[in-house]
Amino acid sequence: MTEVERSPWTDPTWLASFTDWVETELRILGREVQGPPAQPHVRPWSTVLRFETDQGPVWAKAPRSSNAYEARLLPAMVGWGVGSVIPPLAVEETNGWFLLEDGGPTLRQTRPDGTGDADLDAWQAILVTYADLQRTVGDHAADLLRLGVPDGRPATLAPTMAGIVEDDAWWELVGPDERTESDAARARLRGMGSWVAARARELEASGIADSIQHDDLHGGNVFVGPTGIRFFDWGDAVVAHPFGTMVTTLNSVAYRLDTTADDARMRPLRDAYLEAWTDVLPRPALEEVLDVVLDVGRIGKAAAWAKALSGLEPSEMGGHGDAPALWLTDLVERVSR
Question: What domains can you pick out in the chain, each with its CATH number?
Answer without folding.
Answer: 103-335 (3.90.1200.10)
